[in-house]
Amino acid sequence: MDATTARSAPWRWPAEPMRILAVALQFLTRLPVPQIPVIDGDLRRATAAFPLVGVLVGGITLGVWAAVEPLLGAPVAAVAAVIMAVAVTGAFHEDGLADTFDGLWGGWDPDRRIEIMRDSRIGTYGGCALVLSLLLRIALLAQLDLGGAARAILVGHVVGRAAILVQIRWLAPVADRGSGAQVAEPVGPIGSAFALLTTLVVCIACLWQWAAVPLAVGLVGVAAVRRAARRRIGGLTGDILGATQQIVLILTTGAVVALDRWGGAW
């Protein structure tokens, strides 16, 4: 993220929450938001807005799906929607997924695995993980109508980003590694409550009595990534957070698609 760091400033409502949201947007996306100075601790506080960023990214992605599907059908709409999601975020989380798979399964000891994760080049494990994840996302969205796509896209993007906050609380950082280390600090109780409320509102609005299903599936995904990270490198890095988002996105999208295909869910 291209931003400068400043000293702490007093909290002002509503200017300060909007500034924190802007920090989250410029950190997680490539949307044209004004570049603002980043105060110490802003990245940690901005994690509270990650699910809200998921609402925005999911809304843009859904808009593309809805525009393309009547003209070219659901399969092409699914491809276009995934392309848009990747473009809006600058493949930020996808990069973390690829680096995580390269590192966790490409080295013989924790130090070497972390070194591989920090390498900008993509290896065999990372390339396979990236391609398969994109194919899964497209295949899941390709079988939905507009209502199903809205539920799957919004829930997937929101819960996927909420999972980052859970992983931060569950897994201690490996070491101080730049902006990833700043994000990997748990947000306070007010920020946590806001992130939880955002996630619950979206899940309940989309799934009603089935809102707990993607949340439970998402926790399973977080736990699986946590276990692998602890065993292979001993803790959390920024790439692990990106992998968490991607894996939970796929799992929760799949859960919503399964509910949609079951039919009785609605």
How would you characterize the overall build of this protein?
The protein is 73% helix and 2% strand. It is mainly α and 266 residues long. It has one domain. The chain has a two-stranded parallel ribbon with strand order 1-2. Strand 1, helix 1 (15-28) and strand 2 form a beta-alpha-beta unit. Helix 3 (50-72) packs parallel to helix 10 (189-207), helix 5 (92-106) crosses helix 7 and helix 11 (212-232) packs antiparallel against helix 12 (238-262). The longest helix is centred in the middle third of the chain and has 25 residues, at 146-170. Residues 1-9 have low confidence and may be disordered.
Shape verdict:
globular
Strand content: under 5%
Mean pLDDT: 91
Tally of separate domains: 1
* Arrangement of strands in the largest sheet: 1-2
Q: How many E strands?
A: 2
How much helix, percentage-wise, in residues? over 70%
Count up the helices: 12
Main pleated sheet: 2 strands, parallel
Cα radius of gyration in angstroms: 18 Å
Low-confidence stretches: 1-9
Q: Structural class, from helix and strand content?
A: mainly alpha
C-alpha end-to-end distance? 41 Å
Helices and strands, in order, run as: EHEHHHHHHHHHHH
Reconstruct the topology from this structure:
Layout: E1 5-6, H1 15-28, E2 38-39, H2 42-46, H3 50-72, H4 74-89, H5 92-106, H6 110-118, H7 124-141, H8 146-170, H9 179-183, H10 189-207, H11 212-232, H12 238-262
Parallel strand pairs: 1-2
Helix pairs in contact: 3-4, 3-8, 3-10, 4-7, 5-6, 5-7, 5-12, 7-12, 8-10, 8-11, 8-12, 11-12
